[in-house]
């Protein structure tokens, strides 16, 4: 009996230790990711400052080049080859800096997506422990929900429409907002109610029989 108790205690301690280790690693990775994002933002800010400096220097060099031309030359006889060389050099430098800025932007977006993915997973876990969830439903073409107002949605108080995504826009889920085909509806609430509402949003509109239409 005592041996069984000690074995169970050892297993529980092992599970607790593993969970604690995973939590510490997760927090460390999250902090490290945020530090990387801040570092990349600092680098992007530095690149932008370099672009401004190159543009500022280009303006000064052009002005000096034209202002210091030999006085005996007429304005139309100014040799612009040196100006062209200065402009081309600055343009090449700025293009290289812009490429670096684009690469930094991609890295920042990737890190932010990883952070958002972790947050969504954690949110989904929290909701699942409460028999709830978060759902994404697209209103299909021909759905009976098309033209219906959000205020007409049959839902309980436990269901919340977080937002409606239409094209590039996030729409406020106002009561008088009408659904359109292609709308993406984000729902949060009890899983059973979510399933019912998903069916309501995606059900097909019943067409009238041919005999009735001809009549």
Describe this protein's structure:
Strands 1-4-2-3 form a 4-stranded antiparallel beta sheet. Mean pLDDT is 79; it is low at 208-215. The protein folds into 2 domains: 2-128; 132-202, Alpha-Beta Plaits, CATH 3.30.70.1450. Helix 1 (2-67) packs antiparallel against helix 2 (81-128). The chain has 215 residues and is of the alpha+beta class. It has 4 helices and 4 strands.
Key features of this structure:
Alpha-Beta Plaits, disordered C terminus, single chain, 11% strand, 61% helix, 215 residues, alpha+beta
Structure summary:
With 215 residues, the protein is α+β, with helices and mostly antiparallel strands. Helices cover 61% and strands 11% of the residues. The protein has a four-stranded antiparallel β-sheet.
* Main sheet: strand order: 1-4-2-3
Q: In terms of quaternary structure, what is this? A: single chain
Count of runs of 4 or more consecutive helical residues: 4
The first-to-last residue Cα distance is 84 Å
Low-confidence parts, pLDDT < 50 over ≥5 residues? 208-215
Percent strand equals 5-15%
* Overall 3D form: elongated
Instruction: Report the count of strand segments.
Output: 4
Helix content estimate: 55-70%
């Amino acid at each position: 009996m005592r041996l069984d108790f000690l074995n169970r205690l050892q297993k529980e301690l092992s599970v607790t230790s593993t969970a604690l280790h995973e939590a510490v690693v997760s927090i460390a990775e999250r902090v490290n990711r945020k530090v990387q994002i801040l570092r990349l933002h600092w680098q992007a800010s530095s690149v932008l400052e370099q672009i401004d400096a190159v543009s500022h220097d280009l303006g000064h060099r052009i002005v000096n080049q034209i202002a210091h031309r030999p006085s005996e030359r007429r304005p139309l006889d100014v040799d612009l080859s040196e100006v062209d060389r200065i402009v081309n050099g600055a343009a090449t430098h700025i293009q290289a800096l812009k490429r670096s800025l684009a690469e930094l932007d991609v890295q920042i977006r990737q890190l932010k997506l990883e952070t958002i993915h972790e947050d969504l997973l954690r949110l989904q876990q929290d909701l699942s422990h409460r028999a709830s969830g978060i759902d994404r439903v697209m209103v299909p073409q021909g759905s009976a929900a098309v033209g219906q107002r959000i205020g007409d949605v049959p839902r309980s108080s436990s269901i919340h429409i977080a937002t409606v995504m239409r094209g590039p826009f996030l729409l406020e889920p106002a009561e008088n907002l009408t659904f359109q085909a292609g709308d993406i509806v984000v729902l949060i609430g009890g899983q059973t109610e979510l399933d019912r509402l998903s069916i309501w949003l995606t059900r097909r509109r019943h067409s009238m029989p041919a005999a009735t239409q001809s009549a």
